[in-house]
Amino acid sequence: MNAPDREPPKRAIALAVAVAVTAVMLLLALYLGDWARRTRSHLLHQGRLERLLEKKPHEGQVVAALEQEGMRGVAMARTETELDDAAQRWGGSAREVVRAEGRRSARTRVFLKDDLVYFVYFDEPGVMRAFTVATVSR
């Protein structure tokens, strides 16, 4: 009589282990998929802005093009205080890069769409000189 009593707990333990392993594998797959999506998106935007930078566009052209594509201009920093505020609010993990690059520029414009942020740096005549792509965690 003892043998049949012991069998169900072994099955229950095996089932619990199988469910736990499956759940961990599913979470890992979802995490890796999200990581790959974010990485691909970041690289696409990085490449896009690199190609734009090669053309040395004027500020008005950059603003018009980004707004036409649905990005919203959310800030323009001309002073170090404004730059620090923008970097703190939208810079995420790129905060220090934004501050350093912005200090070398006459103006920094900030554009936002969903969780994606472009920091675009312009010299005094208004020519694009650099950029930073960041994400805002929600």
Q: How does this model look, in words?
A:
This protein is 60% helix and 20% strand. By secondary structure, it is an alpha+beta fold. It has one domain. It has a 4-stranded antiparallel beta sheet, with helices on both faces. A hairpin with a 2-residue loop joins β2 (107-113) and β3. The radius of gyration is 24 Å and the shape is elongated. The termini are far apart.
Task: Give a short overview.
With 138 residues, the chain is an alpha+beta fold. Helices cover 60% and strands 20% of the residues.
What are its keywords?
4 strands; elongated; alpha+beta; 138 residues; 4-stranded antiparallel sheet; 4 helices
Topology:
Elements: H1 2-54, H2 59-68, E1 72-77, H3 80-90, H4 95-103, E2 107-113, E3 116-122, E4 128-135
Antiparallel strand pairs: 1-2, 2-3, 3-4
Could you give the distance between the termini? 58 Å
- H-E string: HHEHHEEE
Helical residue percent band? 55-70%
| Principal-axes shape call | elongated
Q: What strand order characterises the main sheet?
A: 1-2-3-4
User: What's the tally of helices?
Assistant: 4
The figure for the number of domains is 1
Largest beta-sheet details: 4 strands, antiparallel
